Amino acid sequence: MFPVSDHSSDVIRGLWSQMKKAGVKVHLHTEVKGLKVQDGVLSGVELSDGRVMEADDVIVATGGLSYPTTGSTGDGYGFAAKCGHKVVDPKPSLVPLTVKEDYIKEMQGLSLRNIKLTVKKEKKVLYEDFGELMFTHFGITGPLVLSASAKLGKQLEKGPLSAFLDLKPALTLEQLDDRILREFQGNQNKQFKNVIHVLFPASLTPVMLKQGGIPAEKPIHEISKEERRRFGEKVKAFPFTIT
Ligand SMILES: Cc1cc2nc3c(=O)[nH]c(=O)nc-3n(C[C@H](O)[C@H](O)[C@H](O)COP(=O)(O)OP(=O)(O)OC[C@H]3O[C@@H](n4cnc5c(N)ncnc54)[C@H](O)[C@@H]3O)c2cc1C
């Protein structure tokens, strides 16, 4: 929900005024410890201070688990279970992802559009899609990553996953190699770092120079076809580890 004002306080004010109109009695700073259930019959709630509030019906609206400091600590799952509901283990979803490698964090603030993210467990592809991704001080975020997180929560509980970015998804490996070769032609005596930067945003270039397998200072005429191919492969499948 996005109010026109962009202020969440307006949502609270709206709800508050409706509750006032309906005569709702609000008990602030009152923690519910559990539901009062006896012989399968619900008769109210038990508060942390020992009091019991009798009620014919109880609506549990205790929120999720994603932001406990707001007071939403997932108590409702326990309440539901106590009433006999089957509770599916909650998993994180629509969240940014943490990454092991420092070179990812070095690019914090960089946003990439139209790239492909592939996440694998060994050889099995768990997620693959195109979109926008942003690097942060802890890993990656952005629409592509939030969508991916919804599919990866369960697998991430078992351990880290391998991820790959295709930084040039519009080009095949052959086309990319041709493109790199075009940059090399006419720049034979220049150093690799002074030629390859045209392919990447500024903060990605130093990382590609470190990770791409070709020394930054190497003159173009000394770079072998194999080195160039391996560099292209890194651009098409830039690796890192999601934790
Ligand atoms: C950083 C962030 C940004 C977001 N931005 C947006 C946005 O822009 N637009 C949007 O639509 N949504 C947004 N959301 C999602 C939105 O906040 C939630 O979907 C929404 O608040 C869920 O409402 P709820 O009433 O189910 O639970 P909550 O808002 O979590 O409310 C649950 C309440 O129950 C209370 N409670 C929990 N346990 C107990 C207990 N045992 N006893 C008594 N009280 C208890 C909690 O203190 C809390 O007040 C955002 C969420 C986060 C974390």
TrEMBL record:
Cofactor(s) listed in the protein's UniProt record: FAD
All copies of domain RsdA/BaiN/AoA(So)-like insert, residue ranges: 91-243
InterPro entries the UniProt entry points to: BaiN-like (IPR004792), BaiN-like_dom_sf (IPR023166), FAD/NAD-bd_sf (IPR036188), FAD/NAD-binding_dom (IPR023753), RsdA/BaiN/AoA(So)-like_dom (IPR055178)
Keyword annotations of the record: FAD, Flavoprotein
Pfam families from the UniProt entry: HI0933_like_1st, Pyr_redox_2
Cross-referenced SUPFAM superfamilies: FAD/NAD(P)-binding domain, HI0933 insert domain-like
Domain FAD/NAD(P)-binding: residue ranges: 9-63
Entry-linked PANTHER family: OS12G0638800 PROTEIN (PTHR42887)
Protein name: Pyridine nucleotide-disulfide oxidoreductase
Organism, as annotated: gut metagenome
